[in-house]
Amino acid sequence: MIRWEDLRPLLEEFYQREFPDHVKEEPWKVAIGCILSQRTRDEVTDAAYRRLLSRYPTLEDLASADPSEVEKLIYPVGFYRQKARRIVEAARYMLENGVKPSLEELLKIPGIGRKCANIVLAYGFGVPAIPVDTHVERVSKRLGIADPKDSPQRVEEKLRNLIPREMWIIVNHALVRFGREICRPVSPRCEICPLREICPSSRVKGSSHP
Ligand code: SF4
Asked: Cα–Cα distance between 107 and 102 in angstroms, integer?
């Protein structure tokens, strides 16, 4: 089992990297960026996000947008037609109800699931939260922090138990970077991984990967 003292240096190292544009904003923009980013690479999300926000710079503008115009601006993000409708619905909801730093309240926004709600908390409000996306889930399971069959919510709970609350804020960003650069979905780079000696899935030790 990985201990917090083992994980901390890795999180701190991988947190020191650049953030994509769509997570460096005020809460309503982070929410919109998260809807855009689902199943889409950061570079494509960022370009679509900039086009969208330069045409509709305020929440009021976006709430009154025509979804077919939004579609054209965000193409080629994945599921751009559905996302365009969700973005306008989410903007209308946030305009009417505000955006509050509460998981329960954020989950009421159309198109916002648990991962995006935690992203808005962590990146939009600076509130301790651990968004679990595909990278965070995979890395946590390989490291033995979570079990192979755990749901993303269970992975989140186990990370919250392992990591001190004041450090939750860096977990998503650090593990996403680590998951992209070292603990990749295919061919993880165990030979240069700083955790290779203690990771139960390390290839260097000949173990298999979930
Ligand atoms: S040793 Fe390999 S499987 Fe384990 S965390 Fe490092 S890269 Fe991932």
From this structure: 9
